[in-house]
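User: For documentation purposes, I need each entry recorded in a consistent format: the amino acid sequence on its own, followed directly by the corresponding structure tokens. There are two entries in this batch. Please keep commentary to a minimum and don't merge the entries.

Assistant: Recorded as requested. Entry 1:
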Amino acid sequence: MTSLEFETEDMRPVKAWCTEHEVHVTLADGRTISAPLWWYPFLSGLDAEALNDIELMYEGIWWSRVDEGISVKSMFLGWKAPGAQAPEKAA
């Protein structure tokens, strides 16, 4: 599957937001996808306002405050950003 086959009008983000532990994106076709916030270390340290200061792009979402973004494709395929480490689970 090529990139052009993956990114379609139906997969365009129409809404995005962050909760304490996840990034959520609603797509043009009505689906909502989510990924753990820890997958994106460049977002660590941002407060709730900054986490939700998101720009929608055709293929993904962008945080101008950190000059970083993620693609819908990477969320679907489970691609984590470089340096992503799962949090330690409490014993």
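Entry 2:
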Amino acid sequence: MTEEQHDIRLRVNGIQHTARVPARRLLSDCLRHDLGLTGTHVGCEHGVCGACTVLLDGQPVRSCLVLAVSAAQHDDITTVEGLAAPDGTPHPVQQAFGECHALQCGFCTPGFLTLIAAYVRDHPDPGEDDAREAVTGNLCRCTGYQNIVNAVLRTAEITREQDGAASDTTAAAPRAEGGRP
């Protein structure tokens, strides 16, 4: 007997996708096998390690705990492949991970990147203890976490610099004659 299949629509990294999946297909498996987005890694399949973390409507979730048919009810899914800007400019967290040498084998990295991107968005000026607490739910067997914590802090710094530069550009916009914008 074959399992009933469901046609679903998922908006992933700004692109609309369709897939035909069994009711019990996990979002992590759908992303990897049905959509070919292999950046989301699957470690424990129990929601413990965090390697499969993606953003569901902007919030970090363990994609190994979400059914693909349930994810179809949400507006947007962001995977590690969707963090960079459309022109390929790395997201601040991607830049920070490189600068801070925050990865070794790289298996856990996609989950950390998506988690930290959301964390810094919501907490733009974390302290070291805050950064350490933010990443405690994701497991890394290689780094010892210090460089990951440094990357959280550097991500926040880069983001503040970019936000400041954007504000300066807006403030420096040319004014029409008479001093009015």
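Summary note for entry 2:
The longest strand covers residues 5-12.
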